[in-house]
Known about the structure:
- The structure is a homotetramer.
- Chain A is an alpha/beta fold.
- Chain A is 35% helix and 18% strand.
- Chain A is built from twelve helices and 14 strands.
- Chain A has helices at 11-23, 50-54, 111-123, 148-161, 172-181, 195-202, 218-230, 258-265, 274-278, 281-294, 320-336, 342-347; strands spanning 2-5, 27-32, 37-42, 59-63, 83-85, 92-94, 100-105, 128-130, 164-168, 184-187, 208-211, 236-240, 270-272, 298-303.
- In chain A, strands 13-12-11-10-9-8-7-14 form an eight-stranded parallel beta sheet. In chain A, strands 2-3-1-4 form a four-stranded antiparallel beta sheet. In chain A, strands 5-6 form a two-stranded antiparallel sheet.
- The radius of gyration of chain A is 21 Å and the shape is globular.
- The two termini of chain A are 34 Å apart.
- The interface between A and B is large, with 43 and 42 residues.
Amino acid sequence: MLIVMKPQASEEEVRRVCAKVASLGYRAHPMPGAQRTAIGITGNRGPLEREEFEALPGVAEAIPVSKPYKLVSREIKEEGSLIHLGPPESGVTVGGKELALIAWPCAIESAEQALAAAARVRRAGARLFRGGAFKPRTSPYTFQGLGEEALKILAEVRRQFGLLIVTETVDPENCDLVEKYADVLQVGARNMQNFSLLKRVGRSKLPVLLKRGMSATLEEFLMAAEYVLAEGNYNVMLCERGVRTFADHSRNTLDLSVIPAVKRLSHLPILVDPSHGTGRRDRVIPLARAAVAVGADGLMIEVHPNPDHALSDGYQSLFPDEFEKLVEQVTAIAGVLGRTTPHSAISGSGASPGPGI
Amino acid sequence: MLIVMKPQASEEEVRRVCAKVASLGYRAHPMPGAQRTAIGITGNRGPLEREEFEALPGVAEAIPVSKPYKLVSREIKEEGSLIHLGPPESGVTVGGKELALIAWPCAIESAEQALAAAARVRRAGARLFRGGAFKPRTSPYTFQGLGEEALKILAEVRRQFGLLIVTETVDPENCDLVEKYADVLQVGARNMQNFSLLKRVGRSKLPVLLKRGMSATLEEFLMAAEYVLAEGNYNVMLCERGVRTFADHSRNTLDLSVIPAVKRLSHLPILVDPSHGTGRRDRVIPLARAAVAVGADGLMIEVHPNPDHALSDGYQSLFPDEFEKLVEQVTAIAGVLGRTTPHSAISGSGASPGPGI
Amino acid sequence: MLIVMKPQASEEEVRRVCAKVASLGYRAHPMPGAQRTAIGITGNRGPLEREEFEALPGVAEAIPVSKPYKLVSREIKEEGSLIHLGPPESGVTVGGKELALIAWPCAIESAEQALAAAARVRRAGARLFRGGAFKPRTSPYTFQGLGEEALKILAEVRRQFGLLIVTETVDPENCDLVEKYADVLQVGARNMQNFSLLKRVGRSKLPVLLKRGMSATLEEFLMAAEYVLAEGNYNVMLCERGVRTFADHSRNTLDLSVIPAVKRLSHLPILVDPSHGTGRRDRVIPLARAAVAVGADGLMIEVHPNPDHALSDGYQSLFPDEFEKLVEQVTAIAGVLGRTTPHSAISGSGASPGPGI
Amino acid sequence: MLIVMKPQASEEEVRRVCAKVASLGYRAHPMPGAQRTAIGITGNRGPLEREEFEALPGVAEAIPVSKPYKLVSREIKEEGSLIHLGPPESGVTVGGKELALIAWPCAIESAEQALAAAARVRRAGARLFRGGAFKPRTSPYTFQGLGEEALKILAEVRRQFGLLIVTETVDPENCDLVEKYADVLQVGARNMQNFSLLKRVGRSKLPVLLKRGMSATLEEFLMAAEYVLAEGNYNVMLCERGVRTFADHSRNTLDLSVIPAVKRLSHLPILVDPSHGTGRRDRVIPLARAAVAVGADGLMIEVHPNPDHALSDGYQSLFPDEFEKLVEQVTAIAGVLGRTTPHSAISGSGASPGPGI
């Protein structure tokens, strides 16, 4: 059930509806919008009586929700959500006019590497830095990340360059530690239906970046986000990173048509990760352009941490100057859609006219 | 085996190599390039002796080809192929700086409809008109196309609007008829591995538009094109139209990452069909933008033939003014990549600078 | 529309209904059943009036058919179809108690090979011999079959061993030739939606073996069969041969769950091809056992044509003694289901009790 | 690296090799076989020196392992593993001649239901009872299981009927609780790459039932099992439960060809779950027969808990008498392969001759 308040409803009236919901043993999720507030109800097993709520002062309508997801739906919140990252003064918001650029080195192996990479991507316009401290790996015998040591390096990256830190959390207990260092909690594709973890990050104060599972349908993807919102954390960003198909010319098949599909159904912003999505360096820039053109709210790009050591690179990570080229190109395309990148501000371009698609 | 001639090799020397190949019972495919000519050899069952050819005058190198495809490969022809469509004076070329725009009504049911649709798409900048005369349909009980009557209507569309006609041929015998009317022969996704048909269009003088099969790997797609080239018809355009996956939010999963993959391996141009690729009107424009941004050489777009009859539309076809909006947006994005559309010429925009990505 | 006649309806009454259908410009498909005759109507674009038919003498009911397929449906013919192969005296029937065993050498390269292979598989109980005369190959440069020469060899196999000949036809024109030699026309997976070919074999007097396309849904598979039946050829056998998925441990993913699904919806028999379905010799026997256990009406098995030349084998073909072992095992499993194989008759086993599942 | 001991090597010699491995900072996994002991080494980042180990007394060979998995591989342990479940006196072993039958009600909602279901499935020959206490559900709003209350009911089922209890654990913390009640820990398909959970169950004393992820390749599946073995728990049973494909006629596509593929590569037993694999009651029995015929070591079958309440059933669960029919049929097929079911012992059948395939 979704309670839509009248535009002129007072805060007191909203509170009274929430109290009523609580008294019935359910949970109320007030979601203030630009025009008016909507209140989602969760925790009810069967259908509710509309009349019981429509009789309350300030209520415009009580809508039974048929879709399996509620809180992530545009039916409950028409305008797109803006997710603020970092401390209030950071000024970094995802889902608005400016695209988010998250750069990440393929692995954090030392402070030197991480700081060198951070310096380069900061210069190219990235505001967000993703570093893997705990890496879920297919094999138990490959490097599983530096753990807390990496988290400390990431904290230093933030201190020195003002980059906000995105890092993955892999289980509920581990989340306690990661929360101390990160600005954004990432839930990886393999954990998209790890419901214990989804509930745990749903109780966090930090925004969550939720990657689509390798074979997740759109509905399953939105339901995973619903788990986080249902616990009270509304700051969720989605991320498409390629799905598993028969096609063998790239590691995964980047499903860009999911972007307009998400935009239609949900108010949550969605990013694209063309590095994992293609697994090949020479595909990253073209697919990054396409992701921006299709309407994504941002990009996650793997950048080589050590520009002096070009030969030992990860197969899919861009060299820093390729990343700069990418930022330049997507900034131009963003301009066509009436959007900007952090680079637009630096170079003074892009924010300009644009047909405002 | 691929024979690479010296840059200064004479035509006589090329002819002599071809004669040698023929004398061995194989087939020679001379492919003149900007710098020099390469000659592909097909028809040999086992490996050939390099020395036998390298001894001939004018030959730079004889290269054993490991990939299963030869004639479609960039190894044999480094620069991208330009496919000229229509009579010499048409000036329509696919694979160059200008993107191809193929518009098509969801069905040709009468001359009036077809001509009305043609007038609108011509105005929006399309130079190519696709009309279904023989429609391969999943069910034997649904409309299979008007047949030759539709071909005559298409001829009238060409006469009145100067649009070039793209139409599908469904079997070798049917090809005899379609050839009389069409400017471009289309081979549909369901026939991508109909080798009898591929050989037949390979013996045609008309250019071929080959759509990717629903579950074709990149290699199978290129091998299907190889069938056409191996018969002597080098004017092949590829077209990505979505592949079959578990994802159910769109009819097919448009695989845009195949565009840079084709570009890397083959000299053939490749278009994208976002109408079939998504099956939903509201996804067509975003995916068309993405297709241009990723580097496609053109678009096939389904446009509603009857703007006065909005309710009875096909689920995936754009209304004419949506098509105009699409052309405007992709022209702007093409400009960012240093490319143009036929609309650029009309509006004077787009051809301008652009970072020339 | 489906007209169900009363059990006691006369042949004259059936004829009168058919004439009525023809007079309306549609096509009638009388299908005699054990209890009563049903008449399918095809060729109508819109819905028909039930009353118009229910008023005719001998008609029990006129049923509007909602599914896109009609003639292949169990709604039109409740009991499973029995397809008789070869001349009347052959005694080979598919879809009944006895399973069909089709053996085939990986290629027919000479009369000696074919005859040697035929002798071995005949001894093991096979009644059907599949030989590839025209082979649809992914590459234009690989062996495309011996053509008519192979057909003549197959005719000799029939003459010497009494094996019935199954062979593939690849286009409508080619069908004229193949029909002269074959007992069963095969339509391959790549041609499952080659509608020109489906219509052509629908006008043949020979039974058709239709293989499932690599990414065909169940509905598309049944619709392809519907094309054949709609032309008047009701003798269609289906064949599951694996679908294309992400799984890379076998060449295709054999979809055995489609067998009970087909059995529920359609009266047509369905075979399984575990050789193409797995692409690996060591998987063929286990999957053949599973195919029989799940309820398939027969098997197609690739057998090595030359037992003396074991090293040059096709990767997926069984050696003759492995084929004999397979026949023995599937005969035992067939016995558990109350079914037999041609081998049961030879060995005297299997036909015996069995719980009659 | 895999150390293969000589057949006559003493326990002391095995201990010495393990001590050597530990002294290098790695982990030794001694795996006693029928003929001789092999010792897997994990924890090493780079390659090891063979000579260092081959010099030790009792060592036959030190083999560098190229496959990404080691401990699950047949290279390390040639004969199939036998996993003993429950207390020593239970006599239930998976991977041997007798197939495992795990029956499970679609949900445990009360003690009455669970006990009634248990009585029926016990009578039909099941020795293992799976009950869902903590259910990972796609939606946060659907029933998530009764939790510890269900575990107590399951303990009562064990006490009254001697059934061993299989139940799912969903995160490392939850595992502490589940371990107190269960005989077998299940890791569900959605958690197949939840590496924190895999490590936790790897430290448990209980055997683990690991279900294949929805889009897991064979290698990823084996690597997930490797995580469990690498922590020291070698008692792992695999379970195929259907993969995600385009096919829409069943909920998932049961990939039976993975059974012989696993058998070839790994010594671990593998079961099949045709209930989840098909999602439809009328497919469960045919696919259960096929699973046994292909060589699976057991079945997991959903059985309706309340035979008196037939209408409110889960769509995929068998009624108790259907389950009995299934057991009868698979027992007969198992007999053909020279295997038995717990029902064989009861009915006195099946264990008998059989060609011993």
